Structure formats: C-alpha cells, structure tokens
Structures
1.
Amino acid sequence: MDPKDFRQQAHQMVDMLADYFEEVREGEKGSVLNWQPPENAVAKWQEEIDSHEKDPTELFKGILRDAIHVHHPQFAGHQLSPIAPLAATASLLTDFLNNGTGIYEMGAPGSMMEFAVIRKVAQAMGLPDEAEGFLTSGGTLANLTALLAARSFKASSNVWKEGNETELAIMVSEQAHYSIDRAVRIMGWGEGGIIKVPADEKFRMNTELLEQSFAKAKAAGKHVVAVVGSACSTATGSFDDLEAIADFCEQYDLWFHVDGAHGGALCFSKKYQHKLNGIHRAHSVIMDFHKMLLTPVLTTAVIFRDKELSFHTFSQKADYLFNKTAEKEWFNLALRTFECTKPSLAIPVYTLLKTYGEDLFDEFVTLLCDNGQTFAGLIHNHPDFELAYQPECNILCFRFVKKEMDANSLDELNRRIRTAIVEAGDFYIVQTQLNGRQWFRTTLGSPFTNEKHLQSLLEEIKKFGDQL
Ligand SMILES: Cc1ncc(COP(=O)(O)O)c(C=O)c1O
C-alpha cells in the first residue's frame, strides 16, 4: 500500500509490456506459445509460489514467456481478440479502482457507461430505441440470462415461484454453442429441453425444418418457448437465417433470441453487417466484445428489444413487487444481472468508443473478415488442402489432404499435425469435427496477420504433413 512502490512497479510493467508488444506484433522473434505439458507447468508454479522475491519483475517476465500471444500475427486459434493497448490502460484504471457495478453507488461511472455502450450496439444492430440491456461476464452467462427472461415471459406457469411443471423447451441449430445446451440443463429442462434443428451443408440452421421440429416437439408434450439463432456458430462461423427464424417466432408467438457472441460484432462492419439481417427483430441478443472488438475478457452485451423485458429475468410477470422495485431502481443493475458484484466492464469499451469512435470497430472487424476471404482463397488454390466451406467471417475450417490416404488415416494425420504445430509453437490453430471428420479450425484475430503469414501456415502444415 505504498504509492512509491506502485509508481515504480507500474512504470516498469508498462515499459515491459510496450517492449513485448513491439516484438510480438512483428511476429518475427519468438513463437506464439511456449508449449509445456500441463503437469510441468503446474509443478513449476506450485514450486515458485514459495520462493519469495521483493521485486516481481522476474515473475512478470515468466508469465509473459509462458503466455499465448494473441497479438502475434501467427495466432489463429480460439476466438479471443487481441486487446487494444488503450483498452488495457483503461483496465488498469478499473482494476485499481475496484468499483462494483451491481449497485449504482458502488461504481457510478462504470455502471452508467453501460447504458451508453449498449445503446451503441443496439443502434448498430437496428434494434428499436426502447432497447436496453447491460454488460455481463461472458457469452455463456449472457445466453443463460436471456433464456431465463424468455422462460419468464413465455412459460404458462410461474416457474420462478413454483419450479418447472410443464416440459419447457427451446429450439436451436445443432451447430449452436454448448452454452445454450448448458443453459437449458441449468434451468432444469434436461436433455429433452433442447430441440436441435439439423444444419444445412453450410452449417447454418436448416430453417425449412423448423416447422417439422416444432410439430414433433409439440406431439411429444413439449412447450417450446424460444428459438435461438446463431450469429454465428462457433465451429464454422456460419450465420443462421435470422429473418426466417424471426418469421417463425412471430407466427407461433415464441421468444427469438440471437446468440451473437462472436458474429454480433459484424454489426459495426458496413461491409459485412448484412450477415446479421433480421437481428433487429430479436427479443434478446448477446454479443461478446472480447471476441472481435479489442477488449479484455470478459465483456458481453445482453440486449433486450424493450427495456421492460430486462426486468423480468430474475422474477416472473406476476411478481409485481419485484418488477416495480427493479424498474424504479433501473440504475441498480444487479436487479437485472446474474452477478451481484460485477467489475466495471464498460470502461475499456467506452474508452475505445469515445477515443476512436465506431470506425475503429468497423475497420477492425472488416479487416478480420477480409483476412478470412484471403485465407480461403489460398487454401482453395493449394492442391494439398481442402476448405470445408466458404467462410462468412474470420472463422474457417480446412484440412491437409493426401489422395492416397483413406478417411480415417487422414483424420489421424490432421490430428497429429495439429499437435506438432502446437508443440512447435510458431503458429496456434485449433481443431474441430465436422460431419464426423477432422478439420483444422482457425479464427483470424490479429490485425498484424497478412497473406505472408497465412501462406507460411500452409507451408508449415504441409511440412509436418509430409514428415508425419
Ligand atoms: C456462439 C458462441 N456463443 C457463446 C459463446 C460463449 O462465450 P464466452 O466464452 O464469452 O462465455 C461462444 C464462445 O466461443 C460462442 O462462440
């Protein structure tokens, strides 16, 4: 608790991070990750915790050395945005203040900024002026929060008070993120509460099968309360036809929720926002800032098309007293969020928007999606690779092929190449299964990635493919 120490340590930290950033963004020196088996890593940290040192510099250097470098142009793994340096600076402020935002008095700037940030996203998505929401800790929690609101509005009994009586269910593409499945199970609806609509050849919900799936669910005694559109799906980055889902929800008076954790960010890209056509008709939408919008984990927007809907999440429509209290205390966000204490999530996003405007997000998201197209072109033109589908954003799946190999051996080879890549550490990519086969999965998140890096990734994969 000594300001002198803080000044000195924090200055040193900023210098160290600036040097790190300079080096990592070039992508020449060092690698994307310094792979170690988890057993070794845990043993090291367990041992080091007892070797006390007054100066934390070596500790910080060790963390940098062992971390994965998301700014690196050869990072193309899971959906994590590199942070804008200014957002990191703002995070230092929020961490130091340690204000909560559940209760207005506990963190006035952070909690009130949420309204301004949500308004920007709602406008970019074309939601009505009455739309309102808040920030929460990640897409998983955000999906649960929105689906709890759907339950509150569409269930015929008062589940909040009486528990589940009817067999409630939602409908969603088989390609949806697992957090939807998890939310349904947390709500106590079991496996039968999630009705998976088959996907088409582009891994989008086959909306022509909605009617059939709905009729089957009803015949089995299910009360379907909502349909969830994925914008986009996690594995392939495919965008469901949101207009078709909205029409269906209107026809049967169902809640329409859009999981835009990843692709919701395209609302800021003039070039790619058409992928979200129909999102403005949703009752609820979620969008992660930390996947494509340069902000720290976790920063997720939950938006309701009408602010009134947001007051019912943790109550039931008949619960007059609670709703009235919540509406009167609109400024105490904990009445509407899962969290009680919540960090000042809005401050880094607000700082970026105030400093650079939405143009920053437009340029950045457009660049990442353009990179997806460039990479798809390289893969398509390479005789040793197969593209799983034409990508719609910055997520794409592909694999190494050898004509003489059977399908199972090819799967095994692609799996082994991926392990070799991670262990070598010069690139980071992940993997997925599509239609029972093995594919590499990449999310192009770094603004420093260019065609040369993507070409080298293919060469590296081919090198391992030929060796293994
Ligand atoms: C479509 C989709 N929804 C939800 C999530 C979960 O978001 P979070 O990791 O922020 O909890 C993800 C994460 O990958 C996702 O891709």
Note: The chain has two domains: 1-33+68-98+358-468, 99-356.
2.
Amino acid sequence: MSLCEMKELYAELDRYVKDNLNLLLAVEKCWQPSDLLPNFAAEDWLDQLKAYRETARNLPDDILITLVANVITEEALPSYHSWLSRLGPGFDKSGADQGGIAQWMRGWVAEEKRHGDVLARYLYFSGLVDYRSIELSIQHLIRNGFDPLTENCIFQGFIYTSFQERATFISHAGVAREARKHGEHNLARICDQVAGDEARHEKAYERFVGRLFELDSDRCMLAMASMLRKTVIMPSRMMTDGVDDNIFSLFSAITQRNGIYTVVDYAKIMDHLVRLWKIETQTFQTAEARQAQEFVARLPARYFRMAERAIERPVKIPKRPISWIHDRVVNMP
Ligand SMILES: [Fe+2]
Ligand SMILES: [Fe+2]
C-alpha cells in the first residue's frame, strides 16, 4: 500500500472512530472515585473511614497482591498515553486535535485515570499495605517504560488494546468476585465499576480492529499474527519495588494461583478474538496473509492445551517477603 493509500486508510479509520465516540461516556454520566470512597468532608468522616477499614481487613494477602499490581498497572497511565499517541502517523499532534482518534485517545485516558485514582485511594485508606513501597513501584514502572512491541503500528496497537482491555476486565472483575466472597463489598463495588469501563473500552477497540479488517484485511491479518507470535506482553512487565526485580513474576504466579487471571484466560481471550473477527472464514489476497490466518486460527487450541498442562503443574509461589504488604510472605491455601 502506498503512502497515499495509507493516508486514506487512516482518514477512514479516523471517521469510523469519530462515529463511535459514543462508546466513551459523557463526563456527567461517569462515576467518580469520590462516589465510591469515604466522604472526608462529612461530619461523620471518621466513622465512615473506620467502617471502610473494618471490612477491608477481610481481604487475604494473595488477593491484596493482585489488587496492588492492578493499581500499579493502572497508575502507569502516562506510559500508555504516550505510547498511544505515537501509533500510526501520530493522531493527536497538537494535543487538542479534533479528529476521531485524537478525541478517542484523550477520552479513553480521561476515563482510565479514574481507575488508578480510585484503587490507589482505596488501598491508601485501607491501611493494609505499605503504600510508600507501592508509590516507589509506580515511579519505577513509569521510569522503566512500556514496550508492547507494537512497532508504532496502529493495526498492532489496536489488536493489543483489544486484548488488554479484556484482560484487565477479567482481572478487575476477578478481584471484585473475590472481595465479595470475603465480605469486602466496598472493594467489590469499586472493581465492578472499573471492570465495566474496561468492558466498554474492549468493545470499542474490537470494533476499530473490525473496521481495519474491512479496510485492509491482509495487513490486519499479518498484524494479528505478528502480535500473537510475540505473545501479548502485560503492561506492568517492567515493574519493580526497588527490592525485588522479579516482583512481576511473583505477582503473576500469585494471580495464577488465586485464579483471578490465569493461562486459561489468556487462551480464552485469544479464542474470543479469533471468533469475533471471523479469522477462519475470511478471504485473503496474499499467500503470506493466508499463512498468518492458518497460524492464528490454530493458536487458541494450542494455548488451551498448554493451559491444561500448566494446570496439572501447580504454580510454585516463592516464599519471600513482599514489601507491598510490610514484608509478609504470602501463604496460599
Ligand atoms: Fe483501566
Ligand atoms: Fe482499560
């Protein structure tokens, strides 16, 4: 495709995104962190806070670790914003462009910002964690950066975000489920709200990729194969608390064991996207795209088999102190 044709494609995608901006909610209709947290301006603020901390105590450490990692991931939002704005030709050059993609990106970031805010305040008020070490981890993660290997390509970028929004939905919904199970309804309510946003964002990115398949199916197919060949990297891969450079794998192992986000979920997301974008039945022009199609169509089954084998071998949780929870060691049931 020539440069000129790419320009037309970007313009068409931009128009499509503009037509779908209703997948962002009007600011007035959005929940805000203060709707879900103790009201410090109220006369009975101390009673509200005490009641809040009381139920938070029900959370077991292994759920807390997943929650902390989710907070750190959400709080590295500046990295995701700068990554998005670099995709394709750069859709928001001025920072206040009126194109569909520019408006989407800013609206998306504005909605996402509430996730880190509400979860961070919840954790801080709960008194359950060493919040300074979490702050250090956030600062480290933003400094270390974020490279999802999407090569500044909007096709790969939107495939990545489709995958990741679904993954974050699963993770926040999983924390909500576990919190409810342990009688922590405040956190369950917060995570349900966050998960609801992630599900709506997922739908948007999936539509954008659907449009890209219509505009240039071969290029989109190659992009999807390329993304899945590299495996979809978690945005918080480069996190550290400054003590343990391997804290990401510790958190992954714990989250696998507590069942909130597992290898089966990874396979399920892949399967969902393959079905949604009708990979198996699409027709492609080039042999290269047809090979990519074959590779991607077979992947979910391969990953389900790998997940089955992984389930047979229970994950070992290294017994080491974790700074986020005052150096306690996580004991999984
Ligand atoms: Fe989020
Ligand atoms: Fe999201």
Note: The chain has one domain: 3-325.
